[in-house]
Write a structure and sequence with these properties.
Elements: H1 18-47, H2 67-73, H3 76-107, H4 114-122, H5 129-139, H6 146-154, H7 169-194, H8 198-206, H9 211-239, H10 243-248, H11 260-269, H12 274-304
Helix pairs in contact: 1-12, 2-12, 3-7, 3-9, 7-9, 9-12, 11-12
Length: 305
Amino acid sequence: MAVTRPGKPVQRARGLSDRAVAWIFISPTIVLLLAINIFPLLWTIYLSFTNYRANQPGRPVRWVGVENYERLLGSEDIWEYLQATAHFVGWSIFFQVVLGLGLALLINRQFKGHTALTTLILLPMMLSPAVVGVFWTYIYQPQAGIFNYIINFFIDAGSFTMIGDVNLAPWSIVLVDTWMWTPYVMLICLAGLRSIPDYIYEAAEVDRASKLRQFWSITLPMVLPFLMLAVLFRAIENFKMFDMVVELTSGGPGSITELASINLKREAFEKWRTGYSSAFAVILFVTVFGAGNIYVKFLNKVKQR
């Protein structure tokens, strides 16, 4: 509270300023974030330059420099795991965007049973990825699985399972991820559709623009930023996908569906090559972080148009 006296400037009463009070409340959160995020990242970067093994804590730690990175980048297996990850991320996002936008266009129309259909579509994304993996394992089961029954209804494929076939296993995890996360993309697209003012479509109808023309000239350009945002979110999540794929295929058959995250877990907690796996984690972090920053800049340019 300020006290005013004749002939003297205004003086503040003793006490904490608003800025000081704000820092008192914010400081615990900042310290917690630093402890949870920054310290593990810095510790991982340090370990990536050593031969440290977590199962041998008493073993002398030797500084190896960039040896772990050279071994990683020179390994053909690592590039195969990254290729499997790129296949999974690329195709799953493609199908989710196409189906998600289509479902959003459908749900955006008001019709009888609209609410019930929306709730039914959203059910998959409410489940745990690990539960979804186990659930689809039974669906793919060759003897009693419903998927095998549907396939044999159309063609005589005999007793087979997608998750056991080298050529089909990568598509099996794409199918499951698409089934689970298409509703998420649909919600983002639906938000974009409902942000478009009605008068724009009314003006297009006055100009006698066809429905297809309205879609390409109005709907798609105005929903595009929302679509790109959905792609960003799903790409980051799919790049680190682990639990669903582990429960579904465990990286098999062989290593055809062993994503980078699964191999990282094997190196860190099965082979206990902590320094080597830390270098792999740093490479993955830099890849996702760099690609994400480039994508966000491109997204901002699209939004400014």
